[in-house]
Amino acid sequence: LRKAVGETRSAKDRAAFDRKLSIARMDAMLDARRYKAATQAADALLRKGADAATRCQALYVKGSAIFKQRRRADARAVFDKATAACRKTEGVTGFEVKSRYQGARGLYAEGKYEKAAEAFSSLAKDHPKNSYADDAWVLAGESWAEHGDDAKATSAFEAALAVDGDMKDEARRRLLLLAFAAGGAARALALC
Fold first, then answer.
1. Measured distance CA(190)–CA(157) in Å, rounded
2. Is the pLDDT of residue 182 over 90?
3. Burial, 4: exposed, middle or buried (Cβ in 10 Å; 0-12, 13-18, 19+)?
């Protein structure tokens, strides 16, 4: 059809379209649980010298493919690269937030609970209106609890309550457990 009609797009436009098509194909591979193929496709696209927005999305897909294979600690380094690429571009803030969130989950999987808590807290503070904010606070609290700092865990769960998102009930449940464990029946009752 292109031969018959003649090329109507510039080389730059064709390249941009091909990049978008590659990203869409990788997303479809993720949805179909073809994680190895998605990783290979991301690597192939990255070898072509992609712009920052494409690098951001391709690295996010690659990290997600690794993460979904239950290799969360291995995925962290890829999500960190995705975060760096996403910060260099406009219009892909959602990928930056998702990459930071998944990277923090990788830290948690590595058993680096203090660093994970700090990463989740930082994300929630930097993007307080994002739908990931309350999730990040809850996971920050969980990370602090695993680190053995119940005071910081309590603060994080209270911050999740203040966001008033879909994790509000989970944050309240975690606060109740902490209150009961500390013998704070009055605090638990107040939370109820």
1. 15
2. no
3. exposed
| pTM for this entry | 0.84
Q: What is the pLDDT of residue 59?
A: 94
Contact in structure between 141 and 153 (CB atoms under 8 Å): yes
Q: Kindly state the percentage of the chain with pLDDT values over 70.
A: 94
Question: What secondary structure does DSSP assign to the chain, as a single string?
Answer: -HHHH---S-HHHHHHHHHHHHHHHHHHHHHTT-HHHHHHHHHHHHHT---HHHHHHHHHHHHHHHHTTT-HHHHHHHHHHHHHHHHTSSS-HHHHHHHHHHHHHHHHHTT-HHHHHHHHHHHHHH-TTSTTHHHHHHHHHHHHHHHT-HHHHHHHHHHHHHHTSTTHHHHHHHHHHHHHHTT-HHHHHHH-
* Token pair of 48 as six digits: 């072509």
- 120, 139 contact by CB (below 8 A): yes
25: confidence class by pLDDT, cuts 50, 70, 90: very high
pLDDT number for residue 111 = 94
Phi-psi category of residue 6: left, alpha or beta, with phi > 0 → left and psi -120 to 50 → alpha: left
Would you say the C-alpha torsion 184, 185, 190, 192 has a positive or negative sign? positive
Q: Is the pLDDT of residue 12 over 90?
A: no
